[in-house]
Structure formats: C-alpha cells, structure tokens
Design goal:
This is Mutator-like transposase domain-containing protein. InterPro entries: Mutator_transp_dom. Residues 43-311 form the Mutator-like transposase domain. A five-stranded mixed beta sheet has the order 3-2-1-4-5, with helices on both faces. Helices cover 57% and strands 8% of the residues. The protein has helices at 4-16, 20-26, 31-39, 41-47, 54-89, 146-153, 174-184, 186-190, 203-212, 226-242, 249-257, 259-275, 281-299, 320-326, 328-340, 343-346, 353-365, 378-392, 395-404, 410-433, and strands spanning 100-109, 122-129, 135-142, 193-199, 221-224. The chain is globular and about 80 Å long. Helix 18 (378-392) crosses helix 19. The chain is an alpha/beta fold. Bound molecules: zinc ion (2 copies). Residues 298, 303, 306, 310-311 line the site of one zinc ion.
C-alpha cells in the first residue's frame, strides 16, 4: 500500500519550488520510480495527485541526458590530463614527446549474451587508464531508433528527429569498432598514444587495432588479462576431466578436483617471479615458463624439478606415472604449454578488473539488463552517467555542479559522503579478508 501522505508531501514540496527541472535532476536516482509512476497514471489519479505529462517528462529527460553527456566528457578530459602527467613523470613518452599510456579495454552489451545470442540493439565499450583506473573514453553503438523503425514499418520517411542509430553491422562487432575508433583518434583528441592495452581473450579487437595502424611509428602491444588466461586454462582442464574417452574415471575425478590447486600454483609462481630481484625481464619470463610446465608434476606429487620456493610439503602420493600411462598428463601439459606461451603477459600480473568494474556500473544503471533502454538515447545517457559515477564516485554532485555551476544542498552531499564511507569500509574489509602475500621482507 503506497504511503499517500509521503507522496503528497513530496509533490507539495516540488510544486511549491520555482525550478521544476532542478528538483527532478537532483532526484535522478529515483528516475525509474518516477517513470513507473508516470506510466501508471492511474495510481496518481487514485491518490488525487497531479503528475508530469509525458511531454514534460521527455523534455526533462532530454535535458538531463545532455547534462550527463557533458559531465562525462569533462570527467574523461580530467582523467586524460591525469594520465598524461603521470606518463610524463615516469618518462614514458615517444620521440615526439607524446605520452604513451597503458590502457584497459572491454565492451558490454545492453542484453545478456554469454557465449550465445549476440543480438543486442546497443553496445558500449570503454578505454580505462591503467594508472588512474578511470575511464578515458567511452563509446556507444545503437542499431535501433524507435522513430526510424516506426516510420519504416509504415513505409514512410521518418520525421526530422535527433537520430541515435549509429551502427548497421553486427552486435558482436560493436566493441572492436568503438575501441579502434578510440585508438585512431587518441592523438587528435587527447594528445596521447595508447601504446599498450590489456584486454580479454578476444583476439578480434587486437587484429582490428593492428589493421587500422593508429600510430605511424608505433606498434600497439597487447597484454593478456591474467584472470581471463587463468579462467580459460581452468575451463580446458575441466573439459579434460569431463571427457569420458581419456583415462580411468578415478584419475579424471582426481584431475577435476585439482583444477583449483593448479590455478593457485600458477598464481603463486607469477607473484614470485614478478617480484624476483636482480633478474632481467627475459630471465623472469623463462623461469615462469618452466614453473608453469612443472605445475602438474608438483600438484600430482612429483617434486624432482620443483624450485625450493615452490613447495614445502613433499609427502603426498605420486600419481604422475599413472597419469602418464593413461594419457591424461599429456593433455594437461598441452593446456599448461599454451598458457606458458602467454608468460610475457602473465609476468606483468595485470587484469582487466577496472573496466569490468565500469561494466558492472553500466549494468546497474540499465537495471541489470532486464529493461530495454535501447529505443532512443536512454542507453547512451545511462552509460555517460556510469562514467561519471565510476570516475568521480559522486555522480549527482558532479551533475548538479555541471548543470547549475553551484553545489547541491546538504542532503545530497551527506548522502554521497555516506556512500563513499560505505565503499571505503567495504574495501578495507575485503583487504583484511584477502591480504596480499609478500615474498620478500625488504
Ligand atoms: Zn532515427
Ligand atoms: Zn613440488
């Protein structure tokens, strides 16, 4: 049962204030609720409460969408300056003095499509700076415009409108197009070059970046995301354990139960080799390759080639001979061999978590992909709002400042402060739960 008095008091407060739009802006977070209220006008009429007309709502929504886009651009410009000065400080510039950045890239769609059904109407991709961990560039591709679609269905020419359809290709090609666009325009737009990028296992993006040749005298380097590489390895190992054609069932069960141990062993080898002092980069990579290839032997009880740092308990049963005769060991070594080919990426120990974090904020703004926001510009505006939220952590405050050149009221500030405090508490708790392992005391 709705709280009639509460709604009435809110609306009385709203209508008594002169600037209608301003009040709605500061309550953007409740936008979805307002929209639902407006859609269900009968609730309002039952409560005898006047509400916005649809026309007014669309007008206000357009203004706020514009404001989110402008605020996002300002935030991204600030991040670029931060990344630029950090690159200059560490001397990472090319012969012309242009700063060289390492970025993390990824994309997501407006519709759930994990390994199947890539038919989303809109997609977003972001380029995030590795040092600042903030979004440097965001792009949206829309395949659909409700005005154009309605006109087409009637066989008419659409009326003059602000059209947000900017993509005619397939949904799966959206991410690569946005990222390549970002790379080719980086010098012109921001005066920086994206020299290295961290991405997931999607080789299509890298191929397209190389094909587009964004910089005359620089080849962009790809660093594989550690989490994706390890996840792929685990999936392949699980496939081997599930394959009924190889080995005895007990050995396959043993393999399946050791997948996590193999992953942990590889992770520990990466941490150790990365921090190893007095070794060149190439030596570290070679040592890591050897460690990775030794992991199955170590996990299944043969410690002859283990490095002293690698294992303490050497009393476990040795299964290596039986695994070898069953053919399972050979398959496991194949998987580990293809992982060790990425030792150059693994030694960097970097992941695409920051861009995944941005994707999760986008997902939050679009209601967990349950509601279709791809009809007009709503998806684009929500992606921009996600940029402001990710980069500044105080989105409503930033939006208000950008729209009115003044701070919002104390209520908003206190609310943003409370959220920031909660985030800090959560992150501290996580750090206490999962402390970082260190190998060297000095
Ligand atoms: Zn259109
Ligand atoms: Zn061992």
């Amino acid at each position: 049962m709705p709280d009639v008095q509460l709604y009435k008091s809110i609306l009385d407060r709203e209508s008594s204030k002169p600037n209608y739009e301003r009040q709605y802006c500061s309550r953007y977070w409740h936008y979805e609720h307002w929209r639902r209220f407006l859609k269900h006008g009968r609730v309002f009429s039952a409560l005898d409460i006047p509400s916005m007309s649809e026309k007014t709502f669309i007008k206000e929504q357009e203004k706020i969408s514009d404001a989110w886009e402008v605020t996002a651009l300002k935030e991204m410009e600030l991040t670029v300056s931060e990344e630029r000065s950090l690159a200059i400080q560490r001397g990472d510039v090319d012969s012309e003095g242009i700063p060289l950045l390492t970025v993390v890239v990824d994309g997501s769609w407006a519709k759930r499509s994990y390994k199947t059904n890539y038919a989303s109407l809109s997609g977003v991709a972001a380029i995030v700076g590795l040092e600042s961990k903030k979004v440097l560039l965001v792009g949206v591709r829309n395949k659909y415009c409700v005005v154009c679609a309605r006109a087409e269905s009637k066989g008419l020419k659409p009326d003059e409108h602000k059209c947000f359809r900017n993509w005619m290709g397939s949904s799966s090609a959206m991410e690569a197009d946005i990222i390549v666009d970002g790379f080719t325009k980086s010098v012109e737009m921001h005066g920086v070059k994206y020299a290295r990028f961290i991405g997931d296992g999607d080789s299509n993006v890298y191929k397209k970046i190389l094909d587009s040749m964004p910089y005359d005298n620089l080849t962009v380097e790809k660093i594989g995301c550690k989490n994706h590489l390890l996840r792929n390895m685990c999936n392949k190992l699980k496939d081997i354990a599930r394959n009924g054609k190889i080995g005895h069932v007990t050995l396959r069960k043993l393999t399946g139960s050791c997948v996590l141990r193999i992953r942990t062993a590889v992770t520990m080898a990466i941490k150790y080799r990365k921090e190893e002092p007095s070794k060149t980069e190439n030596d570290k990579i070679m040592s890591l390759r050897q460690d990775i290839m030794n992991v199955p032997f170590h996990v299944f009880g043969s410690h002859e080639n283990c490095e002293p740092y690698f294992c303490r308990d050497k009393k476990d049963k040795n299964y290596v001979t039986v695994l070898k005769t069953s053919g399972l060991l050979c398959r496991l070594l194949d998987v580990l061999n293809s992982l060790s080919d990425h030792a150059r990426s693994l030694i960097k120990d970097v992941s695409s978590n920051k861009v995944e974090e941005f994707n999760s904020i986008v997902s939050k703004f679009i209601g967990g992909k349950r509601i279709n926001y791809c009809l007009k510009r709503s998806y684009q505006a929500r992606c921009c709002a996600a940029v402001v939220a990710h980069n500044s952590k105080t989105p409503v405050y930033k939006l208000h400042r950008s729209m009115y050149n003044c701070s919002p009221g104390g209520v908003n500030k206190r609310s943003e402060e409370r959220k920031a405090a909660r985030r800090a508490r959560d992150s501290l708790r996580k750090k206490k739960l999962h402390p970082k392992t260190t190998f060297f005391s000095s």
